[in-house]
Write a structure and sequence with these properties.
The structure is a single chain. By secondary structure, the protein is mainly alpha-helical. It is built from four helices and two strands, in the order ββαααα. The protein has one domain. 42% of the residues lie in helices and 4% in strands. A hairpin with a 1-residue loop joins strand 1 (7-8) and strand 2 (10-11).
Length: 104
């Protein structure tokens, strides 16, 4: 998405695609996750790390985007934008870009 890095937390399995959740085990198919993990097991605590506007934007998305994967994408984008940490604008841009890929 924002670079050629192949790892996000563990080993990244692919890019954001409309059917990416099909790579996960049955229990993990409710979330769009780059590493096909069962993010629902740990997502709630991770989700709380974001500014409220970012949490709200993720909650309003038509897709159940893994917040950890989105955060890693935002971290990479922030580095390229010379930000010390992702700004709200960077987070929102990353979410929008992910959604565009998922709609293809």
């Amino acid at each position: 998405m924002f670079g050629s890095e192949d790892t996000i937390m563990v080993k990244r399995k692919a890019d954001w695609t409309p059917t990416m959740e099909q790579r996960a085990e049955l229990e993990g198919r409710q979330v769009k996750c780059l590493i096909a993990s069962e993010g629902h097991l740990w997502m709630q605590g991770y989700f709380d790390r974001f500014p409220s506007v970012v949490r709200r934007r993720l909650a309003e998305s038509t897709f159940n985007i893994c917040p950890a994967c989105m955060d890693k994408e935002a971290q990479m984008a922030a580095r390229r934008r010379k930000e010390t940490k992702p700004s709200v604008g960077t987070y929102l841009l990353v979410i929008k870009t992910i959604e565009q890929k998922l709609k293809q």
